[in-house]
Here is the input.
Amino acid sequence: MTMRNSQEFETVNGRLVNLKLNGLPKGMKLWYGQDIGVEEDKVLDEKWNAVRLMFAEPDSFWRACWIRTEEDEWCLMEPTHFQLQMSDSYQNFRWNYYNKPRQAKASTAAALLILRDTMYGDSIKSTIVAQKREVCDELMDRIIDAYERMDPIVVNPLKKGTKATRERIEFANGNSITTITVGAKGPGVGLSRSRYLITEGCEMEAHIIRDLTGKLLPGINKRPNARLIWETTPGAFGSQMYNLWQKAWAPKPGQFSRFNGVFFKWWEDPSYVLRDQNTGELLELGPLTEEEQAFMDSHPGCTRHHVYFRRVEIQGTFDGSIDGFNNKYPPGALDGWSTTKEQVFDGAAVTYLKEMRERSAEIDEIE
Here is the structure.
């Protein structure tokens, strides 16, 4: 039998051998759904094999999950270009900061990683953090949908007498997924967790981000096998979210960041194009302007169909504002961050403004 990436394995005495668990996070011990006190060697071979196959590659579990498509149909998940970047980063790093464009489907993928680790891990409690209750509810709905539609052989049981809800999912071994809605108040974070998903951090108020970093991050640092996913589109220039990203992506000499920064280049993803609603064929919208041609030439992997998408979004969704588009679909890793006046700067301008602010601070100290 051959798996993705040409991994080969065989069955000996009913169990898979030579199967590399390339998707198993470092330090994570597997739970096969057996009752407390039952040893691993007593687990049915079929169940043992099924659980281990979920960790053959970083994206294996996703491919066993049913999701609802934009056409309102159910299908097995086929990871996108962005999601594969996410799975590789999550596999190799404990602290992950994903700078994403709009409609990147990052939140769904991240929520399912939380489900995977919580359902199969030994002693893992997870929390999803969002600004709004409806965002938490939507992510928990996606987790529940995936869980309830999975092949029964790969599903680990819930705690007896409970069912999966938007507020809490608890498994038979004590693992759980809960949510925190921060709203306009500081997050009420108590006990440390092994997994955190913080979605759209740039939508949160500055004091909330300070509370999150002050209460959550120290706990993650103390737990050597804990993991954090922080995914967001760009927000305000000079904010704590910006500073966290800048240090993760392009640290200055002497700076250190625990985060691994991953920038999703929207123009490399084949979904950011326009298609005919009836035929599915790529739309042709004529010649490119000089500015559009320059954009395509300066962004390897970008096609004219990506530029057509950009054109229509700028003209329609963003009322002709390139800055507005760049805030939601950043053209570079340090681009798209806005000032209080809703201006959006490219990386060079942001760097200049940051250096100017630092020079001003130095002058104030001298005076």
Summary: The CA atoms of residues 338 and 364 lie 25 Å apart. The two ends are 73 Å apart (CA to CA).
